[in-house]
């Protein structure tokens, strides 16, 4: 007779960790833009293995599902960082947790983030590389965009989203208005009843019913426009000065806006442009690793690149969403050199910047400016930009920036550009 031996079940602490919830708590660590490096040795902008240990320890120190002695060790490690040490069993647990995040495709080793120097040293089996850096995968970026969007819309009381509504009518699937005669190029969404009635009126009731081209009737629906958007992000040094991190909230807005467009407005497009001493387009997947550098604000070059990107977009509406906190302080000269002036509003820099704004207006590109500062001389600059391009200006804070941008994007009423 076979015997069955039972033993006490010992839960694995690793199984008690929800990875999605953990990534959501780590978003400030991975999206940090260099603000904390000014004050603390544990710079979040450097997503190294050692700093990832610290971030996980800070989160898990309050996790009641972990053994009490582990939580005490984690709390002590957080307080003593970077000189503290972890017990072997706790460090093994963190290593397994990091490996699980990598296996589930939430994080990956970073080759080299935007604006970051390459790792130093190759390490060995006896002394593993401690300065290896990690970055979010596309899966994590999409998830954080979804979570950010839900949090923002929940605070606004919105539970569903529509598309860009217009006062035009078009043929489609859903019937919202009276049918009309079919015209070449319409979606063949036939109003069967009206089509058959036209044939009966012409030839009388009989079998078979002979349909002609002029009998065809199609449903009308509200015309939904498509929109091409360039999100211009200021990554000059002022975005992390004056005791406030302004760039990390801007990155979170980009993630939420990208998720909104991908899920609710599939016909729309979104590109991200960074402007500093010059400007460059970056893929959304690299946005999390972007940090603020010791740069000036070349708004003119950012607008020039955005115009070039939007020129290739065949959409009904094209717009630039510009997030900045400072005055334009640099321009690119015809010979390629960068002219800089951080003192006041330089007339030459303003003239070139206004010229690019005028070009945007002539090309039908709308510019909405979200200013994260309220200095007197900046107000005049932003009002002038809005006046030239007939756009909108919002003087916001980091707390309501995302709400303003998403609400403006969703409630915008547009018309077809002929």
Explain what you see:
The structure is a single chain. By secondary structure, this protein is α/β, with parallel strands linked by helices. It folds into 3 domains: 13-115 and 127-136, no CATH class; 147-162 and 225-411, Rossmann fold; 167-224, no CATH class. The chain has 12 helices and 13 strands. The protein has helices at residues 19-25, 27-31, 49-60, 68-80, 88-103, 138-156, 192-203, 247-264, 299-311, 347-362, 376-389, 401-411; strands at residues 107-109, 134-136, 165-170, 177-181, 217-224, 227-234, 269-275, 279-282, 317-324, 330-332, 338-340, 365-371, 393-395. The strands form 4 sheets. A 6-stranded mixed β-sheet has the order 8-7-6-9-12-13, sandwiched between helices. It has a 3-stranded antiparallel β-sheet with strand order 3-5-4. The protein has a two-stranded antiparallel ribbon with strand order 1-2. Helix 6 (138-156) crosses helix 8 and helix 8 (247-264) packs parallel to helix 12 (401-411). The radius of gyration is 28 Å and the shape is flat.
Question: In terms of topology, how is this protein built?
Answer:
Blueprint: H1 19-25, H2 27-31, H3 49-60, H4 68-80, H5 88-103, E1 107-109, E2 134-136, H6 138-156, E3 165-170, E4 177-181, H7 192-203, E5 217-224, E6 227-234, H8 247-264, E7 269-275, E8 279-282, H9 299-311, E9 317-324, E10 330-332, E11 338-340, H10 347-362, E12 365-371, H11 376-389, E13 393-395, H12 401-411
Helix pairs in contact: 3-4, 6-8, 8-12, 9-10, 10-11
């Amino acid at each position: 007779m076979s015997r069955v031996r039972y033993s006490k079940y010992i839960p694995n602490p690793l199984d008690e960790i929800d990875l999605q919830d953990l990534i959501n708590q780590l978003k400030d660590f991975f999206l940090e833009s260099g603000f904390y490096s000014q004050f603390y040795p544990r710079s979040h902008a450097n997503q190294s293995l050692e700093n990832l240990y610290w971030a996980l320890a800070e989160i898990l120190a309050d996790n009641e599902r972990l053994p009490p002695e582990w939580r005490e060790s984690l709390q002590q490690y957080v307080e003593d960082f970077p000189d503290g040490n972890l017990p072997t069993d706790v460090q093994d647990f963190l290593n397994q947790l990091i490996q699980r995040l990598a296996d589930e495709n939430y994080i990956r080793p970073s080759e080299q983030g935007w604006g970051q120097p390459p790792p130093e040293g190759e390490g060995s089996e006896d002394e593993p590389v401690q300065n290896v850096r990690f970055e979010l995968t596309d899966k994590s970026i999409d998830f954080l965009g979804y979570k950010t969007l839900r949090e923002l819309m929940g605070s606004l009381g919105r539970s569903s989203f529509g598309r860009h509504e217009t006062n035009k009518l078009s043929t489609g699937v859903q019937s919202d208005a009276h049918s009309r005669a079919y015209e070449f190029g319409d979606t063949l969404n036939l109003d069967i009843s009206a089509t058959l009635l036209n044939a009966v009126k012409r030839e009388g009731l009989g079998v078979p019913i002979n349909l002609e081209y002029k009998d065809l009737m199609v449903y009308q629906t509200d015309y939904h426009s498509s929109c091409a958007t360039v999100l211009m992000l200021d990554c000059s040094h002022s975005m992390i000065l004056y005791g406030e991190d302004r760039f990390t909230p801007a990155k979170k807005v980009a993630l939420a806006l990208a998720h909104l467009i991908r899920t609710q407005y599939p016909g729309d497009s979104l590109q991200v442009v960074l402007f500093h001493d010059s400007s460059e387009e970056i893929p959304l997947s690299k946005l999390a690793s972007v940090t603020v550098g010791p740069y000036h604000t070349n708004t003119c070059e950012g607008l020039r690149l955005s115009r070039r990107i939007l020129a290739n977009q065949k959409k009904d509406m094209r717009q630039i969403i510009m997030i900045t906190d400072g005055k334009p302080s640099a321009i690119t000269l015809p010979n390629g050199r960068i002219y800089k002036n951080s003192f006041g509003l330089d007339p030459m820099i303003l003239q070139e910047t206004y010229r690019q704004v005028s070009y945007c207006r002539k090309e039908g590109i709308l510019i909405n400016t979200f200013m994260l500062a309220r200095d007197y001389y900046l107000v005049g600059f932003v009002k002038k930009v809005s006046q030239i391009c007939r756009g909108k200006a919002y003087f916001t804070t980091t707390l309501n920036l995302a709400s303003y941008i998403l609400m403006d994007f969703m409630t915008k009423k547009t018309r077809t550009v002929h």
